[in-house]
């Protein structure tokens, strides 16, 4: 049986709920071999971000080089990239290795409000990384920052998705976790032609730390296996729904989601 591989290029969350830690847990649960290139170390817990320590650009590039010159990968997921310089170095490596199935989660601000991407780097995401990406997965505030438009309704989200496609990315998913208008958690996928809705029950909880990272990592894992974008987004939606529903109840603030809940549910159903 083929071993599928996925690489996450992201920041470390010492609290284990988001970033590299969330990505690797998700890859593992979906039976994909996980690899990582760290962009920054954060001192972080469920209460917030206490420190951000970006790595040297060369350190980021070298980690990716080490993977590209030996193991290779079936998918790449990017998360916290922090600076213009890191974005350019990452884009350069992805292009040089000709990697496909590139999922860009344009992480900008942690749930508690701490910036994880420098303001001036937003343009670099659009210029260097999105043209190489298979799919970009902004939440609503990130889609607003990337397009410069205000997003209130699903109609606005459709317009923003169209604008994002102009960067050269193949598919756009605008997530609905921050939508105050709809009663359900609706994620919108646009393929340049049609819009697809992925809908689930909105769960009343403060424990959503790392939901975006986990969702994008699940899409990358499923694309690595050769699944279609629609199938990958559906699995990611089911994965995050189970992870939010089956809370772990740890930490004193915005707690992490449960990365093993999806597999546990699959076993029970069998
Ligand atoms: N309260 C919730 N109930 C159910 N699903 C949610 C909830 N909050 C977020 N999600 C889902 O989690 C994923 C991440 O959403 P979102 O919160 O928009 O992104 P981010 O974590 O990047 O801010 C999406 O699939 C979204 O639908
Ligand atoms: C290192 C790191 N990367 C990403 C996030 C975003 O997390 P969320 O998925 O909750 O928006 C985070 N808090 N820390």
Descriptive overview:
- β1, α1 (19-29) and β2 form a beta-alpha-beta unit.
- With 270 residues, the protein is of the alpha/beta class.
- The chain has one domain (5-263): UDP-N-acetylmuramoyl-L-alanine:D-glutamate ligase.
- It has a 9-stranded mixed β-sheet, with helices on both faces.
- It is globular.
- The chain contains 9 helices and 9 strands.
- The structure holds adenosine-5'-diphosphate (ADP) and (4-amino-2-methylpyrimidin-5-yl)methyl dihydrogen phosphate.
- Adenosine-5'-diphosphate binds next to β8, α7 and α8.
- Adenosine-5'-diphosphate binds at residues 139, 175-178, 185, 187, 200, 202-203, 205, 208, 211-212, 215, 237, 240-241, 244.
Strand content: 15-25%
What is the CATH class? Alpha Beta
Number of strands: 9
Q: Could you tell me the CATH topology label.
A: UDP-N-acetylmuramoyl-L-alanine:D-glutamate ligase
How many helix segments? 9
- How far apart the termini lie comes to 22 Å
Shape: globular
Overall mean pLDDT:
96
Topology:
Layout: E1 5-13, H1 19-29, E2 33-45, E3 48-54, H2 57-68, E4 75-78, H3 84-97, E5 102-104, H4 122-129, E6 135-136, H5 140-147, H6 154-165, E7 171-174, E8 184-190, E9 195-201, H7 211-224, H8 229-245, H9 261-269
Parallel strand pairs: 1-2, 1-4, 4-5, 5-6, 6-7
Antiparallel strand pairs: 2-3, 7-8, 8-9
Helix pairs in contact: 1-7, 2-3, 3-4, 5-6, 7-8, 8-9
The structure holds adenosine-5'-diphosphate and (4-amino-2-methylpyrimidin-5-yl)methyl dihydrogen phosphate.
In brief, what are we looking at here?
This is Hydroxymethylpyrimidine/phosphomethylpyrimidine kinase. With 270 residues, the protein is α/β, with parallel strands linked by helices.
């Amino acid at each position: 049986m083929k071993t599928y591989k996925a690489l996450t290029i992201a920041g470390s969350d010492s609290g284990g709920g988001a970033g590299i830690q969330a990505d690797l847990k998700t890859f593992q649960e979906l039976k994909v071999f996980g690899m990582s290139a760290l962009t920054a170390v954060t001192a972080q817990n469920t209460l917030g971000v206490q420190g951000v320590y970006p790595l040297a650009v060369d350190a980021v590039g070298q980690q990716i080089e080490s993977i590209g010159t030996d193991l290779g990968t079936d998918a790449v997921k990017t998360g916290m990239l922090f600076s213009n310089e890191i974005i350019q170095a990452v884009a350069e490596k992805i292009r040089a290795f000709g990697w496909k199935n590139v999922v860009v989660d344009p992480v900008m601000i942690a749930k508690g409000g701490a910036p994880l991407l420098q303001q001036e780097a937003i343009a670099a995401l659009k210029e260097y990384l999105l043209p190489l990406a298979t799919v970009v997965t902004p939440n609503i505030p990130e889609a607003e920052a990337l397009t410069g438009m205000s997003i209130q309704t699903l109609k606005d989200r459709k317009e923003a998705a169209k604008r994002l496609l102009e960067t050269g990315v193949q598919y756009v998913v605008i997530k609905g976790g921050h939508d105050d208008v709809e009663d359900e958690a609706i994620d919108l996928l646009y393929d340049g032609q049609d819009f697809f809705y992925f809908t689930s029950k909105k769960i009343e909880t403060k424990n959503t730390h790392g939901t975006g990272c986990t969702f994008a990592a699940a899409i990358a894992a499923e694309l690595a296996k050769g699944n279609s974008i629609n199938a990958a987004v559906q699995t990611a939606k089911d994965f995050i729904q189970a992870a939010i529903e089956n809370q772990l109840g740890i930490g004193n603030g915005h707690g992490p989601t449960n990365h093993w809940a999806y597999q546990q549910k699959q076993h029970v159903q069998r």
